[in-house]
């Protein structure tokens, strides 16, 4: 499998190039040359595979054996998921008739980004080892310096994915005092020598701008061979497709349905969405042949995607703080979703390119259309894709948006269900956005119309919001209730030894100084 760009001007990249480069030279994102189909008999053949076995099958369709031999890929997958606390890796929890929660938070940092970043870390290590085979002289070895900015989850998941990897250093910039205390502790208590936390006095956007500046600095780029693990990295999307397949088979098992049988059920995946990486993986799974009915884009008040799926118009919201609304589900507080461009490419190709255009030229045309949309978004703050593109999108996608109040109400109602036969379930605010959106958009959730709602974080990771939701419930002792949910891994985390460099103002030169100093050690 080769990779191409969403802007239509770059082709024939290997998987390794696509993963290590992150962004294509024409400014687009990498996508596979074509979307592979799952084998004709996958519904029976894959039905009882473990998560790891399934991952091997799915990833093999996107990574040629000549690039990563199957045995090596198997070892990479096994190692990546050995750090998860649950034997199913991403277990499916039955909440009530028709509603299932796909728990993606059983990795080291208690949020779904581990599913991808544990794999990406091992992948980077694998590529480096291969490049460095037989090179003894330290100065001659290939090295990668990963630099990233985070408002919380990405940083901790990246650090846990990359810690202690040979020939690789990771610098994570975060805004001082603006990530949650647990997230900050998760990042800064990792003391491996190759992990460097940089706390920058400023905002998340300041951190992001510094990172962008470093990547635009050709000399610096070359000197340290900068790498990125942000949400546009293709390997992250790829790793996430696996749990769509895995949860589908878990669901059939739980319903006692024979895979491939005629019994008709409708399945909607509801996905709390920020940068559109998680749900995009669901789109790939669907295009590969997974029988899903709908993918539901669940947003918080940062609802650019919700508005798109209503109108076909993508329009940045404006206002203070660059248009971002601060919500109880901060990992979804975005203005523009970076991975949305990948879906736009497919929509453009299927519904905006003139039908007369020969097959061989469609990619280039679609790339031009995507490029125009992106230019418009940058210059005018909006673009309109038109009725046909919207209709194409609506074939698979639906969308809902959820307020903070609804988020709290949802957390509360599931932790204290009215129906005595329903077991209490404490969910985090991001998960609640997904559940509430499904309840709003889908008229009837039942044993024929099933919702699998993705849970992207453990409730303890966003305990402030959960506490807010549960506290004023009459007759409920919050402390007692929450104690049963708090993972033992969080014990002692807040007081453990930390390593972090403080930077007194958002200044690229100061960050360069820190990187120079740390890497010359
Ligand atoms: C990153 C994140 C999301 C959003 O996922 P995208 O792939 O960016 O859409 C949702 N919830 C949590 C907890 C996250 O960390």
Automatic annotation (TrEMBL):
<dbReference type="Pfam" id="PF14821">
    <property type="entry name" value="Thr_synth_N"/>
</dbReference>
<keyword id="KW-0456">Lyase</keyword>
<dbReference type="InterPro" id="IPR051166">
    <property type="entry name" value="Threonine_Synthase"/>
</dbReference>
<keyword id="KW-0663">Pyridoxal phosphate</keyword>
<dbReference type="GO" id="GO:0030170">
    <property type="term" value="F:pyridoxal phosphate binding"/>
</dbReference>
<dbReference type="InterPro" id="IPR036052">
    <property type="entry name" value="TrpB-like_PALP_sf"/>
</dbReference>
<feature type="domain" description="Tryptophan synthase beta chain-like PALP">
    <location>
        <begin position="95"/>
        <end position="335"/>
    </location>
</feature>
<keyword id="KW-0791">Threonine biosynthesis</keyword>
<dbReference type="GO" id="GO:0009088">
    <property type="term" value="P:threonine biosynthetic process"/>
</dbReference>
<comment type="similarity">
    <text>Belongs to the threonine synthase family.</text>
</comment>
<dbReference type="GO" id="GO:0004795">
    <property type="term" value="F:threonine synthase activity"/>
</dbReference>
<comment type="pathway">
    <text>Amino-acid biosynthesis; L-threonine biosynthesis; L-threonine from L-aspartate: step 5/5.</text>
</comment>
<feature type="domain" description="Threonine synthase N-terminal">
    <location>
        <begin position="2"/>
        <end position="81"/>
    </location>
</feature>
<dbReference type="InterPro" id="IPR037158">
    <property type="entry name" value="Thr_synth_N_sf"/>
</dbReference>
<dbReference type="InterPro" id="IPR000634">
    <property type="entry name" value="Ser/Thr_deHydtase_PyrdxlP-BS"/>
</dbReference>
<keyword id="KW-0028">Amino-acid biosynthesis</keyword>
<dbReference type="Pfam" id="PF00291">
    <property type="entry name" value="PALP"/>
</dbReference>
<dbReference type="InterPro" id="IPR029144">
    <property type="entry name" value="Thr_synth_N"/>
</dbReference>
<dbReference type="Pfam" id="PF24857">
    <property type="entry name" value="THR4_C"/>
</dbReference>
<feature type="modified residue" description="N6-(pyridoxal phosphate)lysine">
    <location>
        <position position="113"/>
    </location>
</feature>
<dbReference type="InterPro" id="IPR001926">
    <property type="entry name" value="TrpB-like_PALP"/>
</dbReference>
<dbReference type="InterPro" id="IPR004450">
    <property type="entry name" value="Thr_synthase-like"/>
</dbReference>
<protein>
    <recommendedName>
        <fullName>threonine synthase</fullName>
        <ecNumber>4.2.3.1</ecNumber>
    </recommendedName>
</protein>
């Amino acid at each position: 499998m080769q990779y191409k760009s969403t802007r239509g001007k770059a082709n024939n990249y290997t998987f390794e190039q696509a993963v290590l480069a992150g962004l294509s030279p024409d400014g687009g994102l990498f996508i596979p040359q074509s979307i592979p189909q799952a084998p004709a008999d996958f519904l029976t053949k894959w039905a009882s595979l473990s998560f790891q076995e399934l991952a091997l099958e799915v990833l093999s369709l996107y990574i040629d054996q000549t690039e990563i031999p199957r045995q090596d890929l198997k070892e990479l997958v096994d190692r990546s998921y050995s750090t998860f606390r649950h034997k199913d890796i991403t277990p499916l929890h039955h909440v009530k008739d028709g509603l299932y929660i796909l728990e993606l938070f059983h990795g080291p940092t208690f949020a779904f980004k581990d599913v991808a970043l544990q794999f990406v870390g091992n992948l980077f290590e694998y590529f480096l080892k291969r490049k460095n085979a037989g090179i003894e002289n330290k100065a001659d070895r290939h090295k990668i310096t990963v630099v990233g900015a985070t408002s919380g989850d990405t940083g901790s998941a990246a650090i846990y994915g990359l810690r202690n990897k040979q020939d690789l250093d990771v610098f994570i910039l975060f805004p001082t005092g603006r990530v949650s205390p647990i997230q900050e502790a998760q990042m800064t208590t990792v003391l491996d020598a190759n992990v460097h936390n940089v706390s920058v006095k400023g905002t998340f956007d300041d951190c992001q701008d510094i990172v962008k500046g470093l990547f635009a600095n050709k000399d610096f780029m070359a000197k340290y061979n900068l790498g990125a693990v942000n949400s546009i990295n293709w390997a992250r999307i790829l790793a996430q497709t696996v749990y769509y397949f895995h949860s589908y088979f878990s669901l059939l098992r739980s319903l006692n349905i024979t895979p491939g049988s005629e019994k008709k059920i409708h399945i909607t995946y509801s996905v709390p969405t920020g940068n559109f990486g998680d749900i995009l993986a669901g789109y790939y799974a669907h295009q590969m042949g997974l029988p899903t009915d709908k993918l539901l884009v669940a947003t918080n008040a940062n609802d650019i995607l919700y508005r798109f799926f209503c109108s076909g118009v993508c329009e940045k919201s404006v206002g203070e703080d660059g248009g971002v609304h601060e919500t109880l589900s901060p990992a979804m507080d975005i203005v523009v979703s970076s991975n949305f461009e990948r879906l736009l490419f497919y929509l453009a190709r299927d519904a905006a390119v003139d039908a007369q255009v020969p097959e061989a030229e469609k990619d280039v045309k679609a790339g031009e259309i995507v490029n125009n949309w992106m230019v418009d978004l940058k210059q005018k703050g909006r673009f309109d894709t038109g009725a046909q593109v919207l209709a194409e999108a609506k074939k698979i996608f639906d969308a809902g948006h959820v307020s903070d109040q609804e988020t709290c109400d949802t957390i509360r109602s599931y932790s204290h269900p009215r129906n005595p036969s329903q077991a209490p379930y404490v969910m985090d605010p991001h998960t609640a956005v997904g559940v509430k959106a499904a309840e709003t958009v889908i008229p009837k959730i039942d044993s024929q119309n099933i919702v699998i709602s993705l849970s992207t974080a453990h409730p303890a990771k966003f305990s402030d919001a959960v506490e807010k939701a549960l506290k004023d419930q009459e007759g409920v002792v919050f402390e007692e209730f929450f104690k049963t949910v708090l993972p033992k891994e969080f014990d002692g985390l807040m007081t453990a030894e930390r390593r972090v460099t403080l930077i007194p103002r958002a200044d690229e030169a100061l960050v360069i100084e820190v990187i120079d100093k740390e890497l010359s050690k």
